[in-house]
Design a protein that fits this description.
Blueprint (H helix, E strand, L loop, with lengths): L13 H10 L5 H20 L12 H14 L10 H20 L26 H8 L7 H16 L3 H5 L18 E6 L5 E6 L1 H16 L28 H14 L8 H14 L4 H8 L4 H4 L3 H15 L9
Antiparallel strand pairs: 1-2
Helix pairs in contact: 1-2, 2-4, 6-8, 6-10
C-alpha cells in the first residue's frame, strides 16, 4: 500500500485510504466504489471552498458543518434534486471512515465521532409489490426468446431468494450446477457471499429453479460460446460470443426492470431492491417471524429488518379487529 506522509493535505490521503479499504479492511468492490464516489464530492467541495491544501489536523467541526449544509442545501443530483437525508448520510459515513483511517495511522485529525448523521425521521419508506403486481411483472418477459427466458429466471430468482442485485449478478454457472437434478418438488439451498463478504445461504423454490434450468437449456441450445470453468458467469448477454466479458451489469438489470414495470402497467418504481422488499413482505405476510426474515435477508442487525413493520403492523391491526375491535361490550 502506498505510504503517504502524515503532514500532507487531506486530498492526498484519499488513494491510500481506498487501498486500505481493499487490502486491510477487505471491503467489497461495491463499497470501495461508493466511498470513492462520496469522497470525490468532499474533495470537490474542499477545492471549491479554497481548502485544497487543508491538512487532516486543520479540519474542524466548522468545516464539517459547512459541508453538511452544502450536502443538504446546495448540492444537486444529476436529476436536479437535493439529496435526501438518507443519501446525505452516505457521504457523511464515508467521511467518518476516512477519519477512522487517520486515527489508525496516527494522523492527527478530528475524531470521527464529531460527525453527526442527519436524522431521517419517517422519510424512509419501503416500496414493494402486491402479489397481483408481482404476477403481472413476471408475465411480461417474452419467454419464446432466449433473453426473455433469462429475464424471467432473473425475476424468479429475485422473488424466490431475496438476493441483492450485487449478489445475483456475481453468480456463476458452477454455483447452480446442482439444479440439473430436476427434482420438481425440491427447495434448493444456494451458498453465496453476501454484503461485506459474509457467507450466507439463500433458498431457491422449485418454480424458480425450473426457470433457471430452462435458461441454462436455452443457452446450450443457442450454442453460445462461454468461458470454460466454474467461474463462467450465470447471467450474460445472450447475443455475446464471449460470456466471460459480458456478465450482465446491475445497471442493465435495473433498466430492464424499469421497462418491464412500465409494460406491466405498474405505477411504482420497480428496482432490484423493491423485489427484495417484496420477498421480505411476502414472508412476513404469510406468518414468518422478523428474526427469521432477518437471517434470510442477511441483515446483521434486526433493527434493519424492522423497516418491514408496515406488514407486521397490518397483521396486528387485523388481529385486533377480528378478536377485539367493533364489539359492543354492553350487549355481551
Amino acid at each position: 500500500m502506498k505510504a503517504v506522509g502524515k503532514d500532507r493535505p487531506i486530498v492526498e490521503h484519499i488513494l491510500p485510504f481506498l487501498d486500505y479499504c481493499e487490502v486491510e479492511k477487505g471491503l467489497s468492490s461495491n463499497t470501495q466504489k461508493n466511498y470513492r464516489q462520496y469522497l470525490r464530492l468532499f474533495v470537490k467541495w474542499l477545492v471549491a471552498t479554497g481548502n485544497k491544501d487543508l491538512l487532516p489536523r486543520e479540519l474542524t467541526a466548522a468545516h464539517i458543518w459547512d459541508y453538511r449544509l452544502y450536502l443538504a442545501r446546495i448540492y444537486l443530483t444529476p436529476s436536479g434534486t437535493c439529496l435526501t437525508k438518507k443519501s446525505q448520510n452516505y457521504y457523511l459515513i464515508a467521511l467518518r471512515v476516512l477519519l477512522d483511517f487517520f486515527a489508525e495511522r496516527d494522523v492527527e485529525a478530528l475524531p470521527s465521532s464529531k460527525i453527526k448523521l442527519a436524522k431521517q425521521g419517517v422519510e424512509h419508506s419501503v416500496t414493494f409489490l402486491e402479489m397481483q403486481e408481482m404476477e403481472r411483472l413476471l408475465a411480461v418477459p417474452d419467454t419464446t426468446t432466449p433473453s426473455g427466458v433469462r429475464d424471467r429466471a432473473i425475476l424468479e430468482l429475485f422473488f424466490s431468494s431475496g438476493m441483492r442485485i450485487s449478489e445475483l449478478v456475481s453468480l456463476n454457472v458452477g454455483q447452480v450446477s446442482f439444479l440439473t437434478d430436476k427434482d420438481p418438488d425440491r427447495t434448493y439451498e444456494l451458498p453465496i457471499i453476501g454484503k461485506g463478504r459474509h457467507p450466507r445461504t439463500v433458498f431457491i423454490s422449485p418454480h424458480a429453479a425450473a426457470w433457471v434450468r430452462a435458461y441454462l437449456t436455452v443457452r446450450h441450445t443457442a450454442r453460445v460460446q462461454f468461458a470454460a470453468g466454474a467461474a463462467e458467469p450465470l447471467f450474460t448477454n445472450v447475443r455475446s460470443r464471449s460470456g466471460a466479458d459480458k456478465r450482465l451489469s446491475p445497471r442493465y438489470i435495473q433498466m430492464q426492470l424499469s421497462r418491464y414495470a412500465m409494460r406491466a402497467g405498474l405505477s411504482k418504481k420497480v428496482t432490484p431492491h423493491a423485489l427484495r422488499h417484496t420477498y421480505a413482505t411476502d414472508l412476513l405476510a404469510r406468518g414468518a417471524d422478523l428474526r427469521s426474515v432477518q437471517e434470510l435477508l442477511g441483515h446483521k442487525n434486526v433493527a434493519t429488518t424492522q423497516i418491514y413493520t408496515h406488514v407486521t403492523n397490518k397483521r396486528l391491526r387485523d388481529i385486533h379487529e377480528k378478536f377485539h375491535g367493533g364489539k359492543d361490550m354492553k350487549n355481551e
